[in-house]
Structure formats: structure tokens, C-alpha cells
Amino acid sequence: MTRPSGAVAGEGVVQLAVENVGKSFGGVRAVEDVSCVAEKGKVLSIIGPNGAGKTSLLNMISGFYKPDHGRITLDGRDITSYAPNRVAALGIARTFQNIALFRGMTVLDNLMLGRHVRMRYGVLSAFLYWGRAQREEVEHRERVEDIIEFLKLQDLRKQPTGALAYGLQKRVELGRALALDPQVLLLDEPMGGMNQEEKEDMARYILDVSEERGTTIILIEHDMGVVMDISDRVVVLDRGRRIAEGTPDEVQRDPEVIKAYLGAQKAA
Amino acid sequence: MFHREAGIYKTSYAADMALYPLPVARWAVAGFAVLFLGVLPLAVHEYYLTIVNLISIAIVGALGLNILVGYTGQISIGHAAFMSVGAYTAANLAVRLDLPFWITLPAGGLMAAAIGTLVGIPSLRIKGLYLAIATLAAQLIIEWTINHVEWISGGVQASIEVPRPELFGYVIKSQTQLYFFLMFFVVLAIIATQNLIRSRIGRAFIAIRDQDIAAEIIGINIFRYKLYAFAISSFYAGVTGVLYTYFLGIANYEQFQIVVSIDYLAMIIIGGLGSILGSIFGAIFVTLLPIVLRLVMEDFGSLIFSEADLRNIIPNLRLIVFGALIIFFLIVEPEGLNRLWRNIRSYFRVWPFSY
After folding, report:
1. What ipTM is given for this predicted complex?
2. Is residue B192 within 8 Å of B275, Cβ to Cβ?
């Protein structure tokens, strides 16, 4: 597969590529000419100060925003103009910065919803709930139970998610994304607002997903310790532009990055 | 006291997902079956059976509206119009083509579903109050059309007499026979709705109601599912219209005016939005309320009012009490009668050891 111009990465197989993508809101340029590639089975982190355009970039990948220019490809297939539900059906799952669970539904139902696109039966079988519909429900329930076990949510199965603690809600949201059997997992600050122990748990889960399932992960995170620990590559955004890209070590030493994070006078 | 959940072990996912996973629930269902199929029709006077039949019809309609409003979070003030679409479709088919009810009934439902889907199209772009107005417009347009197009309404007074439903040469005409006829569809509607809600389709509806952005991100095609909700809900409405037409023996547009739409909204609000039991409670409550009010006023009203005043007060009292109740439920118990029932049930679940 040819590498998009301007995107630099390691030697792996490109799974998701963002090529010269830009997006403005009114006069504000949220994302300017950003390129990056996520390699199959690797963890790519996107970091940068607040307002750098990280979430906007994720929103473009998952189809909520249509880029003004540039293109986004999954396994070489152009998905730039796909609606969010089609992007999901192709296997790109996502979590949100401020949790977007179905609060009135149980953990189990939230995860079953995550499998929505993998289920096939239609309205008529739903009315009957017999034969095919029931068989599919049981089959997918088994897959969901695997995830429940993986994320240690067994005792919360039938709890409404709205009543769960914050850290657990984040975990359920990860579970719902995993239920989709994603090829690419977009995580928007999965550890935001967590304490140290919860962060360590979440980091462990993310690494396990990456290692056991071979899922490609694109991660937005503010905790630099975590980012440097678990990422294979890091992209740094500042005011909508990509200012650095490389392995965690390379990025940490990059003067541009230090400048963006610590202010101009220190870098000078 | 009534039942204990401890000690009931489910050994398969299918058992865990059953409609009535607890033995006590299965016994309750069996008990109700005996009551409604054996005891009630034999023990109750024909007049009361008429009321039960009205309730049955209302249950089907309320279930349908609850799928749209309670589960999917869309709104429709045009449901009575969808009922009239079903009613007139069935009446025309029955009279002109001499078709039996088991064809006119689904046909009425399907026609209503088609119109309902059409009305649901704006729901992709507009929500809440604006959608309410769009469906209100649909109600008025359909009402007007039926009333003014003679080809549909049969001309004089926009009403069509329909023949009694007939099954294998057996004509359903008494209230008792109608009772069994309607009960069949009520049971069917309840089971179908329960199944729908626990399926992937029902979960998608609830997802759209709770968090439409999250619903999209997990791959639900929101527009398609909103249309499904409109179609299914209007199908129920159409069937309700057909049942009502067979019940009355006449299709008449006056039975499907906007007030009826509001009555049905009242049912699901009072009964409980997004709840099947709530739809049933609501249908019973809203159907009984005017009847009870009238009985009470006829018996005791003369203590306060004069005979002449009473005649004016009774119909208006219904509206007043109705309005007051809707406001009461919206403020005090937005989850409706179903919530009250759940509170009672969870109290007895651990009774007598409440702590």
C-alpha cells in the first residue's frame, strides 16, 4: 500500500490513513492539513494542548464532521464522506470524552447495542422472537459475555449504567466499543478524570485489546506518562496543525513539542 | 411474600432472556389467562363487556403509540388520523370488495403504516415541538381528506357501514363474541410488542431516544430506525382503527379526531412512557375515567348542582380532570402508573424484611 504524502510512520501495514485533512468552523481552523497513519495492531496517540483539534480529527474519522479537504481511508477504502453508522459498520468503534452511554439501559443492553451492526435479523423476526432472532440473540449474548468477563463487569451486568461510578462507566463504554469487534478503536480521553489506579486498569485493558485482539488503537490522552508508556507512535497537534510525529522518545525530545507544551520562552 | 428471586438459577442465556423468567410471573400470566378467557366473559354483564372491549381496542393503540413516543422518543399528535386511515381502508375493502376481516385488518394496518412512514420522514431533520407540529398537520390533512373525498369516505356524513366480522362462516356480533375477537388481538399485540422491545430493533429505538449521537456511533442508521418506529407504530394505530370500526359496525371520521390523538397521548403519559404494562394501565385508566366520572356525577352530582347544570358539567368535567391528571403525572410521577406499580412490587419483593 502506498503511503500518503506527508505521513511518516514505522514499517507496519497501514490500516487507517488520514491525508491532508482540514476543517474550519466559521473562521476558525480547527484542523489544518493534518496527515497521519495508524498501523495495524499498533497504538497511535494523538496529543496536544486543549483546542489543538484532536477531537475534531476523531470526529472526522468517525464521520460526524466532513472534512473541507483531504481524505480518510480504511484499508485503502475512501471513507471520507461516510455517515457515522456506516463508518461503525466497517469496524471503527469509538468512545467519547464525556461518556455517551445509554444511561437508562443496563450494562448488558449497552453492550448488546454495541453488537447491533453485527446482528442481522429484521423487524418481522423481532416480532416473533423465535428461531433466527432468538438464535442470534443467544449467539451475540455469548460474545458480549466474553467482553463482560474481560472487563470484569460480571456483577454489574443488570445495573443501569447511569447509576455506575464514573470509572466504571468509562469501562462500560470501552466494552460497548469492543462489542462491535472493531478493527480500529478510537478512544477519546479514556482516562480523563480517573484516579491513578483506574488509569492503570484502563491502560492494561487497552494494551490487552491491542495485543490479544490485534485491534488498531487511536488514542487521545492528556496523561503523558500513560501516552509514552503504551503508544507505538505519537502525533502531536497544536492549533490544528501537526507539529511532530514519531515514537514516544522522538516526540518527547522534539523542540516544537516542548515549545507547544511549555510555552515559547523555555524553548528559546 | 409473593415470590422470591433467590434460588432461581438460569442455566442458559435463552432462559435469562425469556419474557417471563420467574415462575411467579408465568403463574401470574396463567392466572390472567383463566380470568380473561373463562371467568370474565361469563360472569360479567354485557354492558361491562362493552367497556372491556373499548379498553382492549385502546390497549392496542396505546402500545403502538408507546413504541413511537415512549421507546423511540419521537412524538405524534396524528395517531388518530392513522387510525382513521386503517378504519377507512378496511371499511372500503370490506364493502366494495367484500373482503373478510383477516385481509382488511392487516391491509388497514399496512396502509396506516405507509402513511405513517411518510409523515415520519421529517423526523430526520426536526425534533420535539417541531415534529409535534408536523404530525399535527398530518392529522388535520388526513382528517380533511377523509371528510371531503367521497371516494374514501363514502359520501354522506363520511361514514361507511361495515359488515360484522366473520370467521369460518361464524359471524361475530354479540359483545361476548367481540370480546374474544378483540382479546385475541390484544394478546397478540402485547406479545409482539414485548418481543420487539427486547430485540435488536427495540434496543435501537431506546438508544435513539436516550442518546442519538451514541446510537449513530455504534452503527444504528437513525433515519431508518425512526421510520421503522413510525411504520410500526402507525401499523398498530391502523389495526386499532380497524378493530374499532368492526366494534362499532361503522367507520366514522368523528371517532378519529384530534381529541382522540390527545387521549392516546394521555394514556401513555399517565400509564408510563416506554413501558408495556404502562400502556395497558393507561388504556384502562383513560377509558374508565369518563365512565366513572359520569356515574359518580349522575349519582352524587345532584347534591351540589341542579339537573340542568349537571348536563353541561359532565362532559366538561372529563376534560378538566384529564388536563389536571396529565399535569399531575408529568410533575409528580413522570413514569406514570407503571412506576407506582413497580414501587408496590419492589416493596413486596423484600417484604417483610425491608432493610
Report:
1. 0.86
2. no
